[in-house]
What we know:
5 helices, alpha/beta, Rossmann fold, 6 strands, Mito_Ser/Thr_phosphatase, necrosis, membrane, mitochondrion outer membrane, 226 residues, mitochondrion, 30% helix
Amino acid sequence: RREPLSLINLKKKNEETGEEELASRLGHCKAKATRHIFLIRHSQYNLDGQADKDRTLTPLGREQAELTGHRLASLGLKFDQIIHSSMTRATETTEIISKHLPGVKKISTDLLREGAPIEPDPPVSHWKPEAVQYYEDGARIEAAFRNFIHRADAKQEEDSYEIFVCHANVIRYIVCRALQFPPEGWLRMSLNNGSITHLVIRPSGRVALRTLGDTGFMPPEKITRT
């Protein structure tokens, strides 16, 4: 319900001016700019940590974040903001990346925290969360998708470049939803730590996937998926 026609109350249409009035109002609701969404998976972290605060980045994870930050800076784009998950590993990854992008504001959100978005199809034997997680996490991650992945606001004049630092499950689900693929297939994709996924959202609402889980900028010995 983000296409221009859905943003207009047709009941209030001026019957005297008719289609001319409708066209004018549609024009004020149409997006003009393209949004570039860069979804970054956090770097390698300490899997032995019992609580989130203990799941800090490993030395290799910090190196990965430096490489990702350097890669993003090398693109020469004017990034508008970095929105990141409030979990420790995502926050630490963001802090390292942001050193390479001075002046870009950072925003923390609980919506992008890791979780179980939807029961995968086909099912897997090595990962079986409690059913309640799908209800709790799934609603939150779907809310993140609806909140962050959409065409540009009609008032936006120039193309925008935004970075989202979060988690593999969240990114895979968002990619499926953005491309209008069955979201149950999210677990069929694999993402490396520190990888870059690039979505493009045109003013028409069409979405294209430029890259998925790119880590070609990292030396092979620095690449991990844990």
